[in-house]
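User: Okay, second chain of the day. Same drill as before: sequence in, structure tokens out.
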Amino acid sequence: MTIEEHIEELRAEVRNAATIQERRQIEAELELAIAELEVVRAELDGRIRAEPPF
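Assistant: Same drill. Structure tokens below.
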């Protein structure tokens, strides 16, 4: 599963969450997945380097 597919799956889960606690937990996971995708895109674009600075 790609990160994009995972994000879409999480979005669907948020829409169908049974409780507010479940919704909050899924939203937190969704935020992390979106941040991870942004890091991957930034690495590919050359905006950031994945290598340690030393």
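The first helix runs from residue 3 to 15.

User: Thanks, on to the next one.
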